[in-house]
Amino acid sequence: MSDLPPDPPRLRAILTHLERQIAETETVGLYLRLQCEEVRKALARASSAPGRERPAQRPGPRRRAPAAEYLMESKSGPADPLPVVVHAGGCTLRQGRRTPSAITAQQARIVLTDTVIGAEPCPVCRPENKLGIDLA
Ligand SMILES: [Zn+2]
Question: What was the pLDDT predicted at 95?
Fold first, then answer.
C-alpha cells in the first residue's frame, strides 16, 4: 500500500470516499434484492395461475405472515414513470397497480434516504414520521 499518500487529511478523504462507495453499493444491492423478490413472486403467480396446480389442501392451521412494518412499491420496470413509494405497514393506498413488498424499518430508512433510489414516502401514511427521519 505504498502508493497511498502519507498525510492524514488525504487518507481521511480517501477513507470517506470509500465508505460512501460501500454504502451506495449496499443500497443498490438491497434494492436489487427487493426487486428480485418481486420478480420471484410474479413468477410464482404466473406459474401457478393457469391450471391452479396447487397441492391438495393440507389440514392444519394456516400460517399467516406477520404484518409488515413497512411496504415498498417498486418500479414495475425501467419505463415505469411512478417513483418507488414507501408506506407504513397497514396503509392500503397505492400509486399504481403494483404489489408492494414488505420491508423492515431499516430497509425503509435506507430506500427513503438514498438519492440513488429516490424513493418517495406515501403522503398519506407518512412512513418518514414513523421512522423519525427528516426528509426535508
Ligand atoms: Zn401509504
Answer: 79
Separation between Cα atoms, residue 44 and residue 38, nearest integer Å: 10
Instruction: Tell me how far CA of residue 57 lies from CA of 22, 53, 54, 62, 93, in angstroms.
Output: 46, 11, 8, 10, 32
Regions of the chain with pLDDT less than 70: 1-2, 50-66
pLDDT digits 0-9 by tens, 107-121: 999 999 988 888 999
Question: What distance in Å separates the CA atoms of residue 86 and residue 90, rounded to the nearest whole number?
Answer: 12
**d(CA 89, ligand 1 centre) in Å:** 8
The Å distance, Cα 74 to ligand 1 centre, comes to 14
CA of 133 to the centre of ligand 1 (A): 16
Residues 85/79/97/99 CA torsion (nearest 10 deg): -60
How far apart are the C-alpha atoms of 88 and 65, rounded to whole Å? 16
User: Ligand 1 mean position to 67 CA, how many Å?
Assistant: 15
